[in-house]
């Protein structure tokens, strides 16, 4: 049985000149449209120059603390309070446990508070340090 002869690979035909010239402006046009839309969004952003808020944990960037395995197995629960100083960049310093009954919960909460990413406090729209920030972590079994 013989196979039919194969045609040699051919290159695609070039675009006609009028189609090729139209495609040259499409990329820069799309870039300009996107740039104008992005710049126009600045007019819709709220004015935060008068905004004041306390520091808070950025839950989008910080995962929940791990429940200590031994205490989970024993079905133990606790509420732990940690106090920290949060700087204007959103980093915790001088963290210490102020309330908690089990060393494993206290250690887990302290590690969480030290490694968490925070939204810094705002005063008149500017980030400011937040001394004595209080973080309460409830270890409960659901």
UniProtKB/TrEMBL annotation:
<keyword id="KW-1133">Transmembrane helix</keyword>
<feature type="domain" description="TonB C-terminal">
    <location>
        <begin position="64"/>
        <end position="140"/>
    </location>
</feature>
<feature type="transmembrane region" description="Helical">
    <location>
        <begin position="25"/>
        <end position="45"/>
    </location>
</feature>
<protein>
    <recommendedName>
        <fullName>TonB C-terminal domain-containing protein</fullName>
    </recommendedName>
</protein>
<dbReference type="Pfam" id="PF03544">
    <property type="entry name" value="TonB_C"/>
</dbReference>
<keyword id="KW-0812">Transmembrane</keyword>
<dbReference type="InterPro" id="IPR037682">
    <property type="entry name" value="TonB_C"/>
</dbReference>
<keyword id="KW-0472">Membrane</keyword>
């Amino acid at each position: 049985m013989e196979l039919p002869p194969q045609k040699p690979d051919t290159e695609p035909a070039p675009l006609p000149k009028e189609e090729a010239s139209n495609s040259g402006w499409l990329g820069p046009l799309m870039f300009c449209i996107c740039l104008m839309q992005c710049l126009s969004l600045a007019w819709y952003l709220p004015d935060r120059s008068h905004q004041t808020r306390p520091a808070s944990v950025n839950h989008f960037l910080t995962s929940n603390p791990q429940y200590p395995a031994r205490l989970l197995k024993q079905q133990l629960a606790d509420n732990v309070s940690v106090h920290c100083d949060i700087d204007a960049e959103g980093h915790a310093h001088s963290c210490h446990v102020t309330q908690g009954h089990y060393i494993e919960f206290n250690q887990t909460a302290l590690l969480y508070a030290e490694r968490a990413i925070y939204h810094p406090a705002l005063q008149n729209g500017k980030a400011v340090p937040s001394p004595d920030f209080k973080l309460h972590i409830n270890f409960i079994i659901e």
